[in-house]
Amino acid sequence: MRTLDVEAGPTRYTITIGPALIGDPHACAARIPGRDHLVVTNETVAPLYLDKLRAGLPGRRVQACVLPDGERFKTLATLERVFDALTAHRFNRDAVVIALGGGVVGDMAGFAAACYQRGVGYVQVPTTLLAQVDSSVGGKTGVNLPAGKNLVGAFHQPLAVIADTDTLATLPPRELRAGLAEVIKYGCICDVGFLDWIETRLEALLACDAAALTEAIERSCAIKARVVGEDEREHGLRAILNFGHTFGHAIEAATGYETLLHGEAVALGMLCAADLSCRIGMLEPAAAARIGALLTRAGLPTVTPRIGAARAAELLRLDKKVLAGKVRLVLLDGLGRAVVSDAYPQDALGAVLEERFA
Amino acid sequence: MRTLDVEAGPTRYTITIGPALIGDPHACAARIPGRDHLVVTNETVAPLYLDKLRAGLPGRRVQACVLPDGERFKTLATLERVFDALTAHRFNRDAVVIALGGGVVGDMAGFAAACYQRGVGYVQVPTTLLAQVDSSVGGKTGVNLPAGKNLVGAFHQPLAVIADTDTLATLPPRELRAGLAEVIKYGCICDVGFLDWIETRLEALLACDAAALTEAIERSCAIKARVVGEDEREHGLRAILNFGHTFGHAIEAATGYETLLHGEAVALGMLCAADLSCRIGMLEPAAAARIGALLTRAGLPTVTPRIGAARAAELLRLDKKVLAGKVRLVLLDGLGRAVVSDAYPQDALGAVLEERFA
Question: Rounded CA gap, A349 and A342, in Å?
């Protein structure tokens, strides 16, 4: 069991990482404050871990709100079900909401906690690798609108995060790999030493080795915490965490959010961003090839869907990160050093889109 | 025109108070930042002031979202209409939402702004006296749930407040009087000198005299800002602003939120709280009588609906402010000095409920 302390503005909390945490009162009851809990989870995760989590919270009043599974349920209508559960069980301001599930559950439970009675506490118990390395840090919560993803939400920091690596053994292998895309991202943007380590330990990670996963999660969260800590409200530096995401969002939007997992789209997006970085002379082609090789070994896709260069350009422009008509992108100024830029030549971007999307 | 600067945690904003502000670019465009605005208003206020407000914002992109009028529409479903308007017009993070209306519009528009893209700015243009003296300060936003009022929301401070006293001339006189209940409340809890002033200027206030209203609003907001400034997240002192509200909420709940206006219920609640303060020897009976006389002159009700003492006791206990089973009440330790207490003798409360509700 490893712990990582995260400072988030005026608050701080601890991420506990390791095997066999759910169900262990030393990990759960000891780290989850309060007495009254609403566990927000979904139909896939509840049968696997809800009773186990209850066992980790002896003596607490634990109610559950089991939501349907899937990104398409990350809506205001589903959020209303969480509020209804909170009021039906008469939870008051001392309630602590527990998010048990992946990123969708975490985002909704966290947003419900942010809003209920203008803010109650919540704890994340992420059960996917993506949620463990991404949603554990940053305090972003929210739901989707018909017009786009995460358009409604709040910044709300958890009271604690409990990342049980055992949950990754029940995760579909494809989702584990998609989570690894984000782990690899942290190496690319900030830490070549971590990238070296991932290359060495990739087989152990894919085999759900608890020690390897614990270290990968801890190092990923530490990088994210360092970046977010310097920029809690996303004004500048934090944008480097979106490496691969602007291209990735365009790919997800074009393919309807069903064909590819988020991490898979991010993997493809990182290759686009690396390609552009090479074309403008910021990154060695060998470094881009190294990223591609690692993603391939991790079982992630490396060939972009042919959605058309014009459509890709249009979708890039729709992304939130567009300021004054220019698409801001996260590029690599060498491996391990991400920069945010809208000053690249437009024809270099055009060439990337032609090569990868046409 | 008067201005009042309000410090709210790390932010500060200005409340501008006076006649003929809506429609005047010196009051509107000069004080409302941004270029893209969604005006959230309702079917009653829009025909009166929407075009006027547009005239006060020359050169801006102004879209409107006109909601149905009434507390019963202060729901998540109505909030979704505001989000739909924001996305339909492609507002981004630079958008500034403008709330044009009473407390319901202000609460919903402010909450929509708090959540849209995890937080955009908003400006309050309150058009009722209640909203001008209450919602202008404190940053509370939110909507109701079927289980209760304001159960979902956020603390979100406005960028500016523009309180045009001319709007009070189009307000139904009964609503003006209900707003005066809150003005009188500020005198009772904090400032006997203000209470003296209200007694002197009551006829001018009821006649919508701009100078009198401007001073009443300014002094009320200054008191609220001082109290809230010392306790932004409502841990202690801020509770004195609820003088009359715990009894008032019970009365509103028992009468279905339709019979009495909020300010009328608060007027009745203040008399209950003053009565209890007298019975436990904290307040002179003459002081309680003085409050009653002023409320009567203001045309506010002073006879509590006979909902039954047992029902009243039950509803008091349901209020949010109950800690560990004891009903915390705001009492007067002399006129102009409010205290929060759950240490009063239960039989004194019982006597008040018998006298006023049985």
Answer: 11
Distance from CA of A122 to the nearest CA of B (A): 15
Burial annotation A163-202 (CB, 10 A radius, 16+ → b, else e) = bbbbbbeebeeebbbbbbbbbbbbbbbbbeebbebbeebb
- Put simply, whether A84 touches B (Cβ < 8 Å) is yes
Nearest to B154 among A80, A88, A154 (CB): A154
pLDDT tens, residue by residue, B45-76: 999 999 999 999 999 999 999 999 999 999 99
Asked if A184 and A263 touch (Cβ cutoff 8 Å), the reply is: no
Specify the pLDDT at position B326.
Answer: 76
Is the pTM of the predicted complex or chain greater than 0.80? yes
Angle A285-297/A192-206 helices, nearest 10 degrees?
20
A83 touches chain B (CB under 8 A): yes
Give residue B321's pLDDT: 54
The nearest alpha carbon in chain B to A114 belongs to B154
Q: Is B128 helix (H, G, I), strand (E, B) or coil?
A: coil
Q: What is this model's ipTM?
A: 0.91
Residue listed under structure tokens 């009365």: B251
**Residues of chain B neighbouring A142 (CB-CB closer than 8 A):** 115, 118
Q: Does A11 contact B at CB distance below 8 Å?
A: no
Predicted pLDDT at A84: 96
Round to whole Å and give the CA distance between B321 and B341. 11
Instruction: Kindly list the structural domains of chain B, giving each domain's residue range(s) and its CATH number in brackets, ordered by start.
Output: 2-170 (3.40.50.1970), 189-357 (1.20.1090.10)
Looking at the predicted structure, is the pLDDT value of residue B322 above 60? Answer: no
A87 contacts B146? CB cut-off 8 A: yes
